[in-house]
Design a protein that fits this description.
This protein is mostly helical. The chain has helices at residues 2-18, 23-98. It has one domain. The mean pLDDT is 86.
Length: 99
């Protein structure tokens, strides 16, 4: 890509200094421009693919976070049930000891 830019600048300087360009200079310039357009299209597609990958990774991260939140909520509920059961067993034991 850098070589294409150098060629284009060189041809533009040649045109500017001589005042005219040969057919081969114009053809070379057209060829360089076509190559740059192809590079641009390829770069654009690569950027679109990268954006799609980022969006998919973001969606996966959100699903993972949701699953983690659900697991934390289930763990909290289990802990509360365990505490309630333990307290109930303590009360039953104390009642049986009082009799």
């Amino acid at each position: 890509m850098k070589n294409h830019s150098i060629k284009i600048v060189t041809i533009c300087l040649l045109i500017g200094l001589t005042g005219c360009a040969s057919t081969s200079d114009v053809d070379t310039l057209k060829s360089d421009i076509s190559a740059l357009k192809a590079d641009l299209a390829s770069t654009d597609q690569t950027a679109k693919n990268a954006l799609a990958s980022v969006e998919e990774a973001n969606a996966s991260a959100q699903r993972a976070e949701s699953s983690a939140n659900d697991a934390a909520a289930a763990a909290n509920a289990a802990e509360q049930a365990s505490i309630a059961t333990s307290e109930k067993l303590d009360r039953l034991f104390k009642r049986s000891m009082m009799k």
